[in-house]
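Interim report to the steering committee. The following record documents the input for WPP domain-containing protein (132 residues).
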Amino acid sequence: MTISRSVIQENKTTKVGSEGGIALSEGLECCAYMKKLDLRDNMFGAEAGVSLSKSLSSYKHLTELYLSYLNLEDEVAIAVAKALKECASPIEVLEMAGNDITVEADSAIAACVAEKQDLNKLNLSKNELKQK
């Protein structure tokens, strides 16, 4: 079985929490041909987000990654940025809006953006990226 797309958001009443996010992340590790991963608007939090970042290295064809409104914060934003920077996926779209990301994560995100030459859409809106 080959899964090329995962859209949890299609069922608007489902909210995947931290425990479910960890299980989902582990299950998605075997989906090397995934092209689009849309996990927006769930309740992942840091632990599930770190688990997800570890699974990103297994994707070779991922072009779109939607991680908005997952309560990820800096630790996960940094882990995701580092994982994407190192993986072979030709990321074109990266969305991490509404995750309380601060300037602590900006250098990791910038390094990822610099490495991903195919990236043409980056959404970091609704975060705390302002200098204080």
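DSSP finds four helices and five strands in the chain. The committee is asked to note this result when reviewing the revised timeline.
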